[in-house]
């Protein structure tokens, strides 16, 4: 169940992202897409309270975030850290919900470290496999904790050991950062996405949506230039759009497509990540007139400027230095988060609107629930 939930959370690249860490550090990450499914699955199986569920989730997110910002991870390194740090964090979460002691928890870490993996080629090649590292991490974390609970032993130092996580999965680790404020300050994903696409696409989507909000319409646009950093332009998100074997991967990881989509629709939602959406005449016409320009300062991060020339000759621009969704700088409103949930429920079609409202209410008082059974029942079609 946890593996299936994690794969579904990753499917439209719409789950929380970007680990924050000690001393203001950040790292590309998708932690919640693993930890939340693991927490829900085990909370249901173990019959734990809402408060214990939240505590375990905080612990798992914190461990994963600390490892993410301490690993030296680079999204263009070839590794997919949704299958690495997520597994360790989720194993900590699982160990807590199973009531494991110190030695068994270390064993769980050792067992899960033997199962970590993930390659970004799944994204470059636009395949459905991009969903799986996160999902495998969820499955592996539960298996690791279950094995440890039954006495299966693991390496003595699975994180900092001679061939532990830091040595085998981290390019430039800073292990001293992992424990700064440990047990006092808790970290995790810091971005609730307003758009269904890769976070690297969000600055350009944000700029395009603001132009739409200001009255710019696709039929009036003669040409579009999306200014990004050279690194962004040369990465997978900056490549010319093509429809690959997985529609979701093709759309989510394409600045050209998501920018065109935002200029046409004012937003990017899961229903825009389909083969039917790809042939929207307004989007395809705009793609033919859209250019990616590697003109921004290489030292910038998560920035973009969208420049449109209208048929009238007027040039309109929007620059974004901090895209919406970041809890620290430009968070979604509480009502914005609820509306995102409502729209996702409507798109999924499994729950009626009145049930969605009951889910929102139950989540708002989850710490008061004796078990998660009432919430699970509400979310079950």
The averaged pLDDT comes out at 96
| Main sheet record | 4 strands, mixed
- What's the tally of helices? 17
Low-confidence stretches: none
CATH hierarchy class name of the largest domain: Mainly Alpha
Tell me the CATH topology of the largest domain: 2-methylcitrate dehydratase PrpD
Protein described:
The chain is α+β, with helices and mostly antiparallel strands and 381 residues long. It has 2 domains: 2-191, 2-methylcitrate dehydratase PrpD, CATH 1.10.4100; 199-320, 2-methylcitrate dehydratase PrpD (60s Ribosomal Protein L30, Chain: A). The chain has 17 helices and 7 strands. It has helices at residues 2-10, 32-46, 50-70, 85-97, 102-113, 121-124, 132-149, 165-169, 202-213, 230-234, 247-252, 255-265, 275-278, 281-287, 334-348, 353-364, 373-379; strands spanning 17-20, 26-27, 189-191, 221-227, 290-293, 304-310, 315-320. A 4-stranded mixed sheet has the order 5-4-6-7. A 3-stranded antiparallel sheet has the order 2-1-3, covered by helices on one side. A hairpin with a 4-residue loop joins strand 6 (304-310) and strand 7. The radius of gyration is 21 Å and the shape is globular.
